[in-house]
Give the backbone structure.
Amino acid sequence: MPVLESSATALLLWAVIGYGLGSVPFGMVVTKAFGLGNLREIGSGNIGTTNVLRTGSKAAAALTLLLDGGKGAAAVLLARFLAGEDAAQTAGLLAFFGHCFPVWLGFKGGKGVATFLGLMLALAWPVGIACCLTWLAAAAVSRISSMGALVSAASGAVWALLLGYQPVAVLAVLLAAVVYVRHSANIARLRAGTEPRIGQK
């Protein structure tokens, strides 16, 4: 964890700002803007990139990926610039929770993978790049998107320690734990051998 330099009031303010940024459901906004319908009524009903891809629009899915990752990165970079590293981690953590549990959607949000990657890139870009490459490698080998997500999330703390970003490691563990909770249904399907592969209808 970073050294606590900001006041409790300042950290609370950045927590609120981070949650507000993270809770913007870009998947729903993008699909509506593209005229693709209500994302809650498509596929799994999830608001993340994978479900947006089920609309058949790769452009919409790519834009959702960038925006969901970008809102986490924006929370970190804004807090770091205006306050400090402790505020950056606080804003980033709450942006992640905002994405996964947005109050506007009854606390039923996304699974957090894109936002996790955006946070890692903003907090410590070498760690973020390593996590992105880990996702690509695991997804390429398994041909399963959720497997890539799970392996990438689990690798975050390891990469943080190996690359010399110890203050990020504790946060990475917490984020990974939430990613695993949000992927509980995927994990059950992986164990049963029924999880869909990339490109599978």
Summary: The radius of gyration is 16 Å. The mean pLDDT is 93.
